[in-house]
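Example (one chain per record):
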Amino acid sequence: MKKRHFAFLKLCILTIISLLIFTACHSGFYQNTGEIKSEPLALGAKCRLVKHELGESCVPLHPKRVIVTEQLALEVVLALGIKPIAAPESAFVANKANFLGDNIAGINYIGKENQLNIEAIVRLKPDLIVSLYSINQETYKLFSQIAPTVQVKYSQSGWKDSLQQMGNILNKSDVAKKSLTQYQEKLTNLRSLLGDKVEKIKVSVSRFHGQVQLPEFRSQYSFPGSILAELGISMPDNQRQLIKSPDDNLIILSLERIDLLDADVLFVAVDPGAKELFEKYQNSQLWQTLNVVKNQRVYSVDSSYWIFGSILSANAIVDDLFKYFTYQT
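Predicted structure:
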């Protein structure tokens, strides 16, 4: 009888310890200046288990307090009809606030994309955290203790797939499909307007980088390059010869190879920290020898949507193409 009583008592103790361990593992905290405990989903809140790049998460059916970890994710969720409560500022290219305007009014900022303020995220009590590329497995585990966290794979030329995947995860697949249909219609209209000129135009897209201090050109596998390719516009042949694989979305240039930028039309996206660099190249003799410069077909464009983006940026690029091509072509 004593043995049975001891065995029962031992089972109870083990059960209590297991429950304590389970609770500790799932309560969630981030050690910074002090212990910050997370807020779980509200009792009775409905969610849907979805698979994504980093695992499985139970995503609320109607999230109300979404936080995004990059400006690219900010653009995607806005396009899907969800306004997040917080987003980071851009770490490199110009902030998407430049063209998103009133759509992001009232959104809290949580640091830079490469230096998120975790304490601020916890204080905002999100019910969902959304990412497109910046979270690794370690960060995913941390964020998942704060709120359900999802990430889809993003590639510059595969931005449509990323939008559709996020639409499926957020139960907004119909919104994603409609926005892509409208985008295709806009492309078709521009293609029709340009007629057979589309096949004759050679276009360069360059970025003057705020970190690298050298210019670059973007390939057909880059975000802007994929839009031009879909429209039927080619990059210059001497650029195309340098592209070896779909992973080559850009080629960095020295001043001595600035001739590679020459084309019928050159779009230049200048990062906020690269204005002096761009002026240096503009004042060089080699720059002045470019035919595209002589013909005054160089156009400065906004790096906040020309370099990386999704459907809203793609539409903004097409708007620029309407503006510049129909004016000069």
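Caption: DSSP finds 14 helices and 15 strands in the chain.
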